[in-house]
């Protein structure tokens, strides 16, 4: 029996060690440990072994089974490792990699950042207000009468509850003065909405930057100095700037700002509205606050507002405003 077991062991171990793939290993397992395998058959033969020999023979058979099982496990590990190595063998580490493409900021965001940095250097803080506004914040408090065309349903998006999508960021002026005592010096970048037909120069949602400076004795000279500095920072020191009288309900006097640079073709471009805060706006604030800290006899201020898309189009010679919202990478990658 001992010899029989020894012979079976060396035969099995040799076969298992030479298995070259999963299939031949499985065949070897079945040959010895399967239902009709050689070791299984030997174990069944135990029935005929005399009682006193059983412990010895039983141990022989158990050892054989354990040795073969261990050899099968070893071989399986060896085959798996070989398969891994084979997979790596076809890997060419000298091939160029795939480069990450982190992207860049949108041209409007870049311009917004530049504008914000410039005003922050002049002491302006950033203010914020809701895109969904009340009529009072968007129009009434800004001295815009009920029959003003901007309040028309054709021009402004109204919600069923009477609120609206702000048609300009000037509403943030009102929000700031409602809650903050003077002096205030803020800019408010954000979206504005109008019921415009979308074309090469109009979007129904666009971006504005509003500014407000209210304190004692703020003058038109402060307004001109601030905005001339800003536009020369953006367009260059040699930029011509003109303040052309205009009308806005919330400022008096009011101006439109045109700028001209040789580098951009030497044509006047209309870029912003501005003016000295109308006393009627201060009175609306006083009434709402229930105090007189914005008494137009005590404080004065200037305000301005401009569209960032328009500014970007002029600065970067963008022919169609829709390019700024189409997300075409061929366009965006140029910035
Ligand atoms: N709100 C004006 C617009 O949307 C822009 C504007 C003009 C803002 C004059 C102002 C201002 O603060 O003083 O066209």
Spatial order of the strands in the main sheet? Answer: 1-4-5-9-8-7-6
**Low confidence ranges:** none
Largest sheet: 7 strands, mixed
Question: Which CATH class of the largest domain is shown?
Answer: Alpha Beta
Number of contiguous helices: 11
Describe it.
The protein is an alpha+beta fold. The chain has 2 domains: 2-89; 107-332, BirA Bifunctional Protein, domain 2. 42% of the residues lie in helices and 19% in strands. The protein has helices spanning 2-18, 22-33, 38-44, 54-89, 107-121, 135-138, 171-179, 220-235, 279-289, 308-316, 329-332; strands at residues 125-126, 132-133, 164-165, 184-193, 205-215, 240-248, 251-260, 269-277, 300-307. The strands form 2 sheets. The protein has a 7-stranded mixed beta sheet with strand order 1-4-5-9-8-7-6, sandwiched between helices. It has a two-stranded antiparallel ribbon with strand order 2-3. Strand 6 and strand 7 form a beta hairpin. Helix 5 crosses helix 10. It is elongated, with a radius of gyration of 42 Å.
Write the layout of secondary structure elements.
Blueprint: H1 2-18, H2 22-33, H3 38-44, H4 54-89, H5 107-121, E1 125-126, E2 132-133, H6 135-138, E3 164-165, H7 171-179, E4 184-193, E5 205-215, H8 220-235, E6 240-248, E7 251-260, E8 269-277, H9 279-289, E9 300-307, H10 308-316, H11 329-332
The structure holds 3,4-dihydroxyphenylalanine (DAH).
């Amino acid at each position: 029996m001992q010899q029989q077991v020894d012979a079976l062991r060396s035969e099995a171990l040799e076969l298992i060690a030479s298995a070259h793939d999963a299939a031949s290993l499985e065949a070897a397992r079945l040959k010895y440990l399967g239902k009709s395998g050689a070791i299984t058959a030997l174990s069944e033969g135990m029935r005929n072994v005399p009682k006193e020999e059983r412990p010895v023979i039983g141990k022989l058979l158990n050892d054989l089974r354990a040795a073969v099982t261990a050899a099968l496990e070893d071989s399986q590990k060896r085959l798996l490792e070989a398969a891994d190595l084979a997979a790596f063998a076809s890997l060419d580490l000298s091939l160029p990699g795939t480069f990450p493409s982190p992207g860049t900021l949108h041209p409007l965001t870049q311009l917004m950042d530049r504008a914000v940095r410039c005003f922050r250097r002049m002491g302006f803080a950033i203010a914020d207000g809701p895109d969904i506004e009340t009529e009072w914040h968007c129009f009434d408090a800004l001295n815009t009468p009920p029959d003003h065309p901007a309040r028309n349903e054709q021009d402004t998006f109204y919600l069923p509850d009477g609120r609206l999508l702000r048609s300009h960021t000037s509403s943030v002026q009102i929000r700031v003065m409602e809650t903050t005592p003077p002096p205030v010096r803020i800019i408010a970048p954000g979206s504005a909405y109008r019921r415009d037909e979308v074309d090469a120069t109009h979007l129904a949602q666009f971006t504005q930057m509003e500014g407000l400076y209210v304190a004692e004795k703020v003058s038109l000279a402060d307004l001109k100095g601030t905005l001339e500095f800003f536009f020369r920072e953006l367009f260059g020191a040699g930029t011509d700037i003109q303040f052309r009288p205009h009308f806005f309900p919330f400022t008096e006097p009011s101006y439109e700002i045109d700028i001209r640079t040789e580098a951009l073709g030497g044509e006047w471009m209309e870029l912003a509205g501005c003016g000295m805060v109308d006393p009627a706006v201060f009175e609306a604030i006083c009434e709402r606050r229930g105090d007189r800290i914005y008494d137009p006899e005590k404080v004065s201020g200037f305000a301005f507002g401009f569209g960032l898309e328009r500014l970007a189009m002029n600065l970067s010679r963008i022919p169609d405003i829709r390019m700024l919202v189409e997300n075409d990478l061929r366009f965006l990658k140029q910035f």
